């Protein structure tokens, strides 16, 4: 996987669920397998099970909750961290040292191993300054994942033209009604 792919993996994975229209790119085990194959996380022709799909969705939503906490949304971080920890244990995620670098690698094969590589990306991201800049949109009906590139790290919405504008109009109407 290239560095660019690694950078986009977490937002791409979490954003497989588009909350506002309710579209889930991981609707079936076959969708999950295809998504993982497209990102070189799984061998062509590998199959996913319903249990794999459930595990992927549980991991996805745990990551989303952690990224909501980065955006000043009150979240009990212990629960999503426990989900990720348990998932990492199931795939036997461990640190491997090669070519002067440390990498998280799962011992599990197939889809669990592919999910383990996503968990490894979470671990890698958590060790960088950009982890705090990776956020979930504050809008309840959005929760899209984005990298906050604002100078003071204060961006609250995925897009000012959609979620930000709706929030500001709502706040304005609320003030006017008072």
Give the arrangement of secondary structure elements.
Blueprint: H1 3-14, E1 17-18, E2 23-24, H2 29-38, H3 50-69, H4 78-90, E3 93-98, E4 101-106, H5 110-126, E5 134-136, E6 145-147, H6 160-177
Describe this structure in words.
The chain has one domain: Jann2411-like domain (Jann2411-like fold, Orthogonal Bundle), CATH 1.10.3300.10. It is 51% helix and 12% strand. The chain has helices at 3-14, 29-38, 50-69, 78-90, 110-126, 160-177, and strands at 17-18, 23-24, 93-98, 101-106, 134-136, 145-147. A hairpin with a 4-residue loop joins β1 and β2 (23-24). The longest helix is centred in the middle third of the chain and has 20 residues, at 50-69. The model has no long low-confidence stretch (mean pLDDT 88).
Question: Which properties best describe this structure?
Answer:
alpha+beta; two-stranded antiparallel ribbon; Jann2411-like fold; 178 residues
Distance between the termini: 54 Å
Spatial sequence of strands, sheet with the most strands: 1-2
| Range of helix content | 40-55%
Q: What fraction of residues sit in β-strands?
A: 5-15%
Outline the biggest β-sheet: 2 strands, antiparallel
Mean pLDDT: 88
In DSSP terms (H or I, runs of 4 or more residues), the helix count works out at 6
């Amino acid at each position: 996987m290239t560095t660019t792919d690694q950078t986009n993996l977490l937002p791409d994975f979490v954003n497989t669920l588009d909350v506002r229209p309710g579209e889930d790119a991981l609707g079936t085990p076959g969708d999950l397998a295809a998504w993982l194959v497209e990102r070189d996380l799984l061998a062509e022709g590998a199959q996913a099970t319903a249990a794999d799909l459930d595990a992927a969705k549980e991991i996805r939503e745990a990551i989303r909750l952690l990224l909501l906490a980065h955006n000043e949304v009150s979240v009990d971080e212990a629960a999503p961290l426990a989900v990720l920890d348990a998932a990492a244990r199931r795939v036997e995620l461990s640190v491997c040292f090669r070519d002067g670098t440390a990498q998280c690698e799962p011992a599990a094969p197939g889809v669990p191993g592919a999910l383990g590589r996503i968990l490894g990306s979470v671990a890698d991201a958590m060790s960088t300054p950009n982890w705090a800049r990776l956020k979930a949109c504050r809008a309840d009906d959005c929760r899209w994942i984005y990298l906050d590139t604002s100078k003071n790290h204060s961006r609250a919405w995925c897009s000012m033209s959609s979620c930000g504008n709706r929030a500001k109009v709502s706040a304005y109407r609320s003030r006017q009604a008072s």
